[in-house]
Fold this protein.
Amino acid sequence: MSSPVAVLVMSPALTAGMVRSAHLERLRGLCELPDPEPLTDLADARAEALLARAEILLTAWGCPPLTPEVLDRAPSLRAVMHASGTVKNHVTDACFERGLRVTSAAAANALPVAEYTLAAILFATKRVFRLQRRYRELRTFRLWSREVPDPSAYRKRVGIVGASHIGRRVIELLRPFDLECLLHDPTLSDDDARALGVVPLPLDELLARADVVSLHAPALPETRHMIDATGLARMPDGAVLINTARGHLVDGEALERELVSGRLDAVIDTTDPEILPPESPLYELDNVFLTPHIAGALGTERERMVDLAIDEIERFVAGKPLQHEVRAEDWSRIA
């Protein structure tokens, strides 16, 4: 039996250095790779020739939409293996209508986000961000105890909003610590939540009880501003909000008011808009630790996503079950 033909489709500007020579060699061991150079334009002559033969597309950031017209020019295509997170930017209804198998490397991207979140939780409960800035200002540590009570993680409550790949990994990483883990996820039954070792709660109750709230819900129309002014007001004085998901989930104006007042702390990696205006007070506040969307896979962490995608190609070629398949019925609940 001949090896299936694989074609790479991604933007070199977004994926430079992500696909290594070792990845290409492994891919050649599984498939015929007629051209190791990724396609970026699915309408040019090179794409026309490669799509005519393609059975597997290895995609990543910058892959153009796989429209019905594109798929008409790829009559042998059977699978789209994505070496990045969301597939919603390029996979269309037509892909599922034609029975294509689709996978995502979201699970690999979840790992560095969860690691960032773990560090943020431990540092935030210890009030590291506030105290570092205050120490730099005062050049002494004799005064901090009157300003920052209880800088400790011991027996604090951490509220996880969303049992996504990332949310579940954060729950796993928190297990060695003396913390109580609360969870809100309306797609999960209470029994399933308890099986994860967490306390299931409605969102309002979680916000009222947690010392730290970490957001891991998908950005969907129904999750826009799920953390609104009313929800923020329920959070106890001194509580910490961590957002490594999307700024879309939080009412930014309401959060800014709470943070400017000093009542809450925040660790924010994603905002809405993606880049805050230069005059935003969040850049300067001592109770805010703001980073430029760095929690997800960067540098060599991106290679892990390519590894996962090629793992899926190996399973597909061998006729084994896929481990990270995206199905049409998942569409309404995934990011």
